[in-house]
Amino acid sequence: MHRYLKVLATIVVGLLASLQPLRAGEPNPVAAIDIMLGPDATMIEHAKAANQRLLASFPLGFALDERHHPHITCLQRYVETANLDKLYEAIGKILAEETPTSWELKAYKYYYIPWKNIGVAGIVIEPTADLIRFQKKLIDAVTPFAEKTGTAAAFVITAEDPDINQPTIDYVTTSVPDHTGKNFNPHVTIGIATKDYLKKLLDEKFEAFTFSPVGVSIYQLGNLGAAQKKLTSWESKS
After folding, report:
1. Does some domain include residue 155?
2. If we measure between CA atoms, which residue out of 82, 93, 80, 103 comes closest to residue 33?
3. Rounded to an integer, what distance in angstroms lies between the CA atom of residue 45 and that of residue 14?
4. Taking Cα atoms as reference points, which of 145, 136, 132, 142 lies closest to residue 91?
5. Residue 92, SS3?
C-alpha cells in the first residue's frame, strides 16, 4: 500500500506540474514567429482609420497600437528558439540581396477571415513578383529551423489576451503551403467585427492606394496573429 501511494503521489505531482504556466525567463523550445514588412505612414493611416470603424461597431475588438502592430505578414512559422540567432543570420543574407523599401505596393480591397459570428478583417495588397520571390527565399531560409506545429505556449500570452484560440494555432501550422506561393494573400490586419458588419464593409467601394514598406522585422505572435513581441529587425536598403 505504501508503494502504491508513493507511485500515485508521483503521478499527481507530475500532472500538477504539467498544468503550471511557463515561468518568466523560461522560453518555450518553440516560438510562433512572423517575418513581416513594416508599412509606411500611408498604410498605417488607412489601417488605423478602418480599425476605428471596426471598434465603433464592435468595442470588444482590438486597437492597432503597441500590442497590435500594423504589419504585412510574409511568413509565419513555428521555429526552434535555440536556433533563432542562426535564423536571423539567414534572413540577414536575404536582405543583403533584396530591397523591400524600394517596392511600391498597391492596396486594393478589404477581406476577412470568419470565425463563429465574428471575423478578422484586413486590407489586401496585390501580390507582386517581388513579394512572392521574397517569400520563397524566406521559406527556404527558415525551413532548417522550423517545427511542423506548436501549442499555445509558442505564443506571447498577456493579461489582456491570456488565451490563444485554436484557429490562431492552426493558421501558423498550415501557413506553408496554405498561405504561400499562389495562395499568398498579403494584407494588413485592421481588427475584428461581426460578420454582418464586415459583409457590408466589403460591399463598399474601396479607394485603392499605393505605399511602400519601411523595414523588415520578426515578431513572436500573440492571439489572432497579433505582432506582440519584437525579436529583431533590419534597416532595409532603399
Report:
1. yes
2. 80
3. 50
4. 142
5. helix
Cell of 147: 517545427
Q: Is the pTM of this model over 0.70?
A: yes
Tell me the C-alpha distance between 47 and 125, whole Å. Answer: 12
Copy the grid coordinates of residue 49.
482609420
The one-letter code for the residue type at 232 is T
Question: Which residue, among 103, 127, 113, has the nearest Cα to 211 in the 3D structure?
Answer: 103
The dihedral over CA atoms of 153, 68, 234, 172, expressed in degrees to the nearest 10, equals 40
Residue-number span of the structural domain to which 178 is assigned? 28-234
pLDDT in tens, 109-152: 999 999 889 999 999 999 999 999 999 999 999 999 999 999 99
CATH code (residue 131): 3.90.1140.10
Please give the grid coordinates belonging to residue 34. Answer: 512572423
